[in-house]
Amino acid sequence: MHDKLEALQTDIVTLKVDAIVNAANNTLLGGGGVDGAIHRAAGPELLAECRLLKGCLTGQAKITRGHRLAAGHVIHTVGPVWRGGNLGEPEQLASCYRSSLKIALDHGIRTLAFPAISCGVYGYPLPQAVEIAVRECADFTAAEATLERIVFACFDRNMLELYRARLWRL
Ligand code: AR6
Fold first, then answer.
1. Cβ 120 under 6 angstroms from ligand 1
2. d(Cα 124, Cα 113) in Å, to the nearest integer?
């Protein structure tokens, strides 16, 4: 168990946290999945702000305001497309979590929620992604006291159980 990390079965757009993380693509101009849901809930002002960012490299992250969301900010990160796991995907996925956490820290964000980056359209196997997500967030919160709470927003029961099982082993 961990006092700062928790998994909830929820739609990430409903969470009242300082920032939610978006699983975006390199253009940062919206898409399907969680990206589409976040843009729909945040309103067109989010897309207008994203246009100013000029995209984002895989493994990196950029921040915007949350606009019509309950969350104050959105941290947009671009996960790797799964191509079998030997083309740097684990390092790139870990970099998404680290880059997002670093930006959160730089902006004084205390409460943050992550979706399962790369685990939808981009095809990353969920058990392996959960391992990376939990490891990176546990390491980061151990080193940085500012982050008080990190929520893993789970889309379904299977995802929730995978995260909870991993969190129990911390
Ligand atoms: N709340 C929480 N989790 C969600 C939600 C939601 N509202 N909606 C989906 N998920 P995906 P990716 C879960 O495909 O694999 C977009 O088109 C979903 O079940 O959203 O990183 C972008 O523009 C899955 O486990 O992101 C990119 O082109 C996880 O979120 C591409 O998809 C991520 O699935 C990125 O693909």
1. yes
2. 19
pLDDT of residue 1: 57
Structure tokens at 76: 């947009």
Ligand 1 binding pocket mutation candidate from 47, 60, 121, 130 (most atoms within 8 A of CB) = 121
List the beta strands (DSSP E) in 56-166: 61-65, 73-78, 111-114, 149-154
Task: Give yes or no for residue 72 CB within 6 A of ligand 1.
Answer: no
pLDDT attached to residue 2 = 77
User: Cα separation of 100 and 104, whole Å?
Assistant: 6
Q: Is 55 in the pocket of ligand 1 (CB under 6 A)?
A: no
Asked whether the predicted pLDDT for residue 25 surpasses 80, the reply is yes
Whether 11 is catalytic: no
Encode pLDDT of 140-162 as tens digits. 999 999 999 999 999 999 999 99
- pLDDT, mean of residues 84-97: 98
Q: Could you tell me if the CB of 79 is within 6 A of ligand 1?
A: yes
This model's pTM is above 0.85: yes
User: Residue 123: left if φ>0, alpha if ψ -120 to 50, beta else—which one?
Assistant: left
The neighbour count for residue 4, using CB atoms within 10 Å, is 18
Q: Are 74 and 42 in contact (CB under 8 A)?
A: yes
